Amino acid sequence: MSKFNNKTVVITGGNSGMGLSTAQHFLAEGADVYITGRSADKLKQAAGHLGNDPKLKTVLSDISDIKTLDALVTAIADSGKKVDVLFLNAGVALFAPIEQTTEDVYDAMFDTNVKGLFFTLQKLIPHLADGASVVLNSSVVSNGAMANASVYAATKAAVTALGRVAANELAAKNIRVNVVSPGPIDTPIFDKAGFPEEAKAQFKTTIQAAIPVGRMGRAEEVARAVAYLSSPEAAFITGADLLVDGGIGLRR
C-alpha cells in the first residue's frame, strides 16, 4: 500500500508546472489532492490533464488576495478531514534590473510569494493533521546574486527564513516544515516572466551551460523531492532546505 494512500494533500498553485506535477505524483500514490489556482479555466485544464481523477478537488483561490483564501479553508473544513501534506507552491517570477523594477512588479511578487504564502499557512495550521508535513517552495536564487532577480530573490529568501521559523514553532504540534529550493526547472513560469522569445531561448541556453549536470530540471523531480520530505522516511527532518538544482548552487 502506498505511504500516501487516502492522505489529504493541499497544493497551492497546483494548476501548472511544479504544482501540477506534484499533484500528479500524489494522486498516483493514492492521496486525496486539493489544488488551488486563480483561473477557473486553468484549473479545469489541470483537472483534465490529471484525468479528471475523482480524488482531485480544485479550488479557485488567488493567494495574493487574502480574502480568497477562505474558499480553500472552507473546502478543507467541509471535507471533515485534516491536511497531511501542505505544499505551499504558488509563486510568481518577474525579472528586471533594480533600476527598472516598478512598484507594481515589487508588490505582485511580495503579495504572492511572501504575504500569500504566509497567510495560507496561518489559516491552515488549525486544519493540519497530527504529524503533518509542510513544504515551502523557495528557490536556489534565495542565496545567490542573480542579476535582474533582486525582488524575486528577496521574496524567496523570505520564504526560506519563514520555513525555518515555522519548523521551530510548529514542532510542538508534531508538524514538520521543510523548504525545497529548485534551481532552473523547465516549467511554464518562463513563459510568464516577461522574456521575449529570443531572450527566453538565450536564457535557457546560458543557464543550462552553467548547471553541473548539464541540463535544466524537470517538474517531476521537484515533485519527488516534496514527496520525500513529506514521507515517513523523512520523519526526523524538519527545518531543512533541500536543493533540487542540478548542482548550480555550487557555482553561485
- The CATH superfamily is NAD(P)-binding Rossmann-like Domain
The main pleated sheet reads as: 7 strands, parallel
Cα-based radius of gyration, to the nearest Å: 17 Å
| Number of structurally distinct domains | 1
Record keyword descriptors for this entry.
252 residues; alpha/beta; Rossmann fold; seven-stranded parallel beta sheet; 8 helices; 7 strands; 42% helix
Can you give a write-up of this model?
By secondary structure, the protein is α/β, with parallel strands linked by helices. It has a single domain (8-244), classed as NAD(P)-binding Rossmann-like Domain (Rossmann fold, 3-Layer(aba) Sandwich). The chain has helices spanning 17-28, 40-49, 69-79, 103-124, 150-170, 189-192, 197-210, 219-229; strands at residues 8-11, 32-37, 56-60, 83-88, 128-137, 176-182, 241-244. β2, α2 (40-49) and β3 (56-60) form a beta-alpha-beta unit. α4 packs parallel to α5. The longest helix has 22 residues, at 103-124. The chain starts with 7 loop residues before the first strand and ends in an 8-residue tail after the last strand.
